[in-house]
Design goal:
Layout: H1 2-35, H2 40-47, E1 50-54, E2 59-63, H3 64-89, H4 96-120, H5 138-148, H6 154-178, H7 185-203, H8 209-226, H9 231-238, H10 249-265, H11 276-292, H12 295-319, H13 332-359, H14 371-380, H15 385-395, H16 403-428
Antiparallel strand pairs: 1-2
Helix pairs in contact: 1-2, 1-5, 1-12, 3-6, 3-9, 3-12, 4-6, 4-13, 5-6, 5-16, 7-8, 8-9, 10-11, 13-14, 13-16, 14-16, 15-16
Length: 436
């Protein structure tokens, strides 16, 4: 029963994220090849093409790349918000004991890379890039773990997943506090008021995905025009989705038995359609099923495939196409800074904080995780692809000449981190004995 309730869903989650990492890699390669091919100009023209609504009294348009980064990525952040809420309420972050291990690792994985970036940075114009090496790309990192196979203990996957979620919380806070524009307090207050309405009706036990969608779109626009990055709206909207079911399992089973008997005793037509009595029974079944489902779990399950298999690859396709030739002036210092912050900063930060916390007995590391595996995962934490590129686009919005350099640094740093992490974990984990 425990395996069915906990282990199996986690394994399905890892499988989805792992395949997403593969798609992410494919999309990145396509973007780089396209941008540096004879058709490179078409790549830039497509993603800079303005799309929007233009009328006599209203005009709102954005380049295609911003619809991806500000629009589709809001859905990505919405899903992150759902995952964070689930983990905080009933998952791996719902007790002090559970959260301590990944929290300590995540803190080290944020503090040391940021400190190293600021220490190495000598250019006042690139100092805003300090947030780039903070977050870990969960899709890529779990994909690497999945390649290693069954020899990786489940507790290590749980640590990496929880670690990346804590990282995401830190990255979201950084985006909200440091990478948003000048504030329009009136519009922000209206947005917060609408969020308050959603939280209130959720607290009262009412949930409608249509209400949330309509208010969510309004809140997205209000955040955008208020000067807060609209992806933050995705996170805040997610916390309005209830996690609790309206009825428990025993109540559902009772009604399921009643509906079963009613369907069994209802009139069966000769034609290949349902009778009115059968239709009523089916509607009753749908109503009770909707009450039995957790709204958060159901929404998270529905969105996971779209985000993993469509939104994240599209984001990579739109953002990873950096032109690499002699005509492009790269800031070598920025590239090296980001590479070192991702590789050295992440690995040293995660490992040192975890070992120190273990030594002073603040945390307890699971017995099936050894020191070499912690070091290996700390290098995987340096795969900052999706969130790192996203933060880079925000950090250098006023200095776009540094964006390509930042992306090159992220790609190199993430690639080297992946290779080192994979190699260490490959030799640090024993192959499980084959069943006789």
């Amino acid at each position: 029963m425990i395996k069915k309730l906990i282990v199996t869903p986690l394994q399905k989650f890892v499988k989805i994220e792992s395949f997403s990492g593969i798609l992410l890699m494919i999309a990145t390669i396509i973007a780089l090849a396209w941008a540096n091919s004879p058709f490179g100009e078409s790549y830039r023209e497509i993603w800079q093409y303005d799309i929007g609504i233009i009328t006599n009294s209203f005009e709102f348009s954005l380049p295609a790349v911003l619809w991806v980064n500000d629009g589709l990525m809001a859905i990505f952040f919405f899903l992150i918000g759902l995952e964070i809420k689930r983990e905080l309420v009933i998952g791996e972050l719902n007790t002090t004991k559970k959260i301590a291990f990944p929290l300590v690792g995540a803190l080290g994985g944020m503090v040391i890379p940021v400190s190293l970036f600021l220490l190495l940075n000598q250019n006042p114009e690139t100092v805003k890039g300090w947030g780039i090496p903070m977050a870990t790309d969960i899709a890529f990192s779990l994909a690497i773990l999945n390649v290693i196979g069954k020899r990786v203990p489940l507790s290590l996957k749980i640590f990496l997943t929880a670690f990346a979620i804590v990282d995401d919380i830190g990255a979201v806070l950084v985006i909200a506090l440091f990478y948003s524009g000048s504030l329009n307090t009136t519009l922000l207050l209206i947005a917060l008021l609408l969020l308050g309405v959603l939280y209130l009706i959720s607290y009262k036990g009412y949930y409608s995905k249509y209400t949330m969608l309509i208010l969510g779109v309004a809140i997205w626009f209000l955040f955008y025009f208020a000067g807060i990055h609209p992806t933050v709206a995705g996170i805040m909207l997610a916390f309005s989705v209830p996690i609790r079911q309206k009825i428990d399992t025993s109540t559902f089973l009772q009604h399921l038995n009643i509906v079963y008997k009613d369907i069994k005793n209802s009139i069966v037509l000769q034609q290949p359609i349902l009778s009115n009595e059968q239709l009523e029974n089916i509607n009753d079944l749908q109503d009770w099923t909707a009450k039995f489902r957790s709204p958060l779990q159901n929404l998270e399950r529905s969105l996971h495939g779209w985000v993993a298999y469509f939104i994240i690859p599209i984001f990579a396709l739109a953002n990873a196409g950096v032109m690499i030739d002699s005509s492009v002036e790269l800031d070598t210092a920025l590239v090296i800074n980001i590479v070192l912050a991702l590789i050295v900063g992440k690995s040293v930060g995660v490992t040192s904080f975890v070992l120190l916390a273990k030594k002073i007995k603040i945390i307890e590391v699971p017995s099936d995780i050894n020191f070499k595996q912690i070091v290996g995962v700390s290098f995987l934490a340096g795969i900052g692809f999706t969130m790192a590129i996203f933060i880079a686009s925000l950090a250098f919005v006023t200095h776009p000449e540094y964006i390509d350099s930042a992306k090159i640094g992220i790609l190199i740093g993430s690639f080297i981190s992946a290779i080192i992490g994979y190699t260490l974990l490959k030799f640090a984990t024993k192959k499980p004995p084959e069943a006789v």
